[in-house]
Amino acid sequence: MSKCLICQALCEPFISFGKMPIANGFLTKEKFENEYFFEMKVAFCKNCGMVQLVEQPEKEKMFNENYAFFSGTSKNMAIHFKEFADHVVKDYIASKNPFVVEIGSNDGIMLQNFAAQKIRHLGIEPSANVAKVAIDKGINTISEFFDGELARKIVKKHGQADAFLAANVMCHIPYLHSVVEGIKILLKSDGIAMFEDPYLGDFIENTTYDQIYDEHVFLFSLFSIRYLFEQHEMELIDVEPQETHGGSMRYVIAHRGARPVSKNVFSQLEKEKKLGLDKEITYDNFRKNCEESRDALMSLLKDIKKQGKRIVGYAATSKSTTVINYCGITTEHLEFISDTTPIKQGKTSPGAHIPVRPYQEFLNNYPEYALLFAYNHSKEIMAKEKGFMSSGGKWIVYVPKVQVLK
């Protein structure tokens, strides 16, 4: 049993993914010996509805000057974040001199849209190497972790904010009460917080177990988010389902009573009840689905290798770390993983130590099969990889089920 990070109630793990490394900890051979591992267990809290890691590595191990993820590498995500920014400006900002704050602002992919409109903004990005990319682009950015204390400093220097934004960040933070305290301090009386993260409902429906890794300490539902913010006299006023990351939800939060609550909130809460997101048996069934998916994927990979065919991993994502280590994928199954991110190339995958090689190697010598780790960008990738497919190349996918796509 462990204590819930949100409400302190006791909760029981429903699955263990076994020994797991830092998801973005791509490493060179000389660092194999000291590689960090933790047991990745996941629990469901019956009291507040939060699904969470039982143990999470220290934040400095995950977010540092060697952080290997840059949002700007995806054209589709750039479009997504422009639409996000435009939505905030059009529907939620009314003041003449607005101020927008984003945490986990990465390389400025969202805030650049506010900067282009000369809107006052501040990015808060704890990974120094990523923050520097944003700063070099002219995006106002500081490299710190957000909490109540930092919120007070920001208000003192810049005044209160019209909007607090985050994308695929809030689920990373174990000390969420301190963050919500900071949001409450930071926002104007009519200000809004808008953030999006992988959604628990999609996670359960599609068995997207790779959404669980060291950085993702939480998987949110409306039920758990509403509970969290109500503890701070704030309320959930709207929700907007998103297709990103295999299924995400965008939440809109305001000070209690400041804005009307959309009917979307109530209809989505009903869907959550039908999905059984408030019942322990749902998570026990999810564990069984994960085991079936793992076994099916390994059976497929072994069968293909017996035929003497080559398999290459496509995209060295954070999510791939969970799949590779949970399933037991090694260099016996994957020749290498192809990736376009320079900081990952020439290194190996966390835990399994599968070589990560430049994308050009994939292009120069197509394999018969590619295991698609970036399935959440499948539309963009399929449009890009017509050459691979026309050469007879096939995709192996594991969400929502293990199958080969021709």
Description:
The structure is a single chain. The protein is of the alpha/beta class and 406 residues long. It has 2 domains: 71-278, 3-Layer(aba) Sandwich (Rossmann fold); 303-405, NAD(P)-binding Rossmann-like Domain (Rossmann fold). Helix content is 35%, strand content 24%. The strands form 3 sheets. A 7-stranded mixed beta sheet has the order 7-6-5-8-9-12-11. Strands 15-14-13-16-17-18 form a 6-stranded mixed beta sheet. The chain has a 5-stranded antiparallel beta sheet with strand order 1-2-3-4-10. Helix 5 packs parallel to helix 6 (176-186). The protein starts with a strand and ends with a strand.
Termini separation comes to 45 Å
CATH architectural designation of the largest domain = 3-Layer(aba) Sandwich
The biggest sheet, with number of strands, parallel, antiparallel or mixed sense and barrel status, is:
7 strands, mixed
Q: What is the β-strand count?
A: 18
Please mark out the parts with pLDDT under 50 across 5 or more consecutive residues, or reply none: none
Number of helices: 14
Write the layout of secondary structure elements.
Blueprint: E1 2-3, E2 10-21, E3 37-44, E4 51-53, H1 59-62, H2 75-92, E5 99-103, H3 111-116, E6 120-124, H4 128-136, E7 141-142, H5 148-158, E8 161-167, H6 176-186, E9 187-198, H7 200-206, E10 218-219, H8 222-230, E11 234-242, E12 248-255, H9 263-275, H10 280-306, E13 311-314, H11 318-327, E14 337-339, E15 356-358, H12 359-364, E16 369-372, H13 378-384, H14 386-390, E17 394-397, E18 403-405
Parallel strand pairs: 5-6, 5-8, 6-7, 8-9, 13-14, 13-16, 14-15, 16-17
Antiparallel strand pairs: 1-2, 2-3, 3-4, 4-10, 9-12, 11-12, 17-18
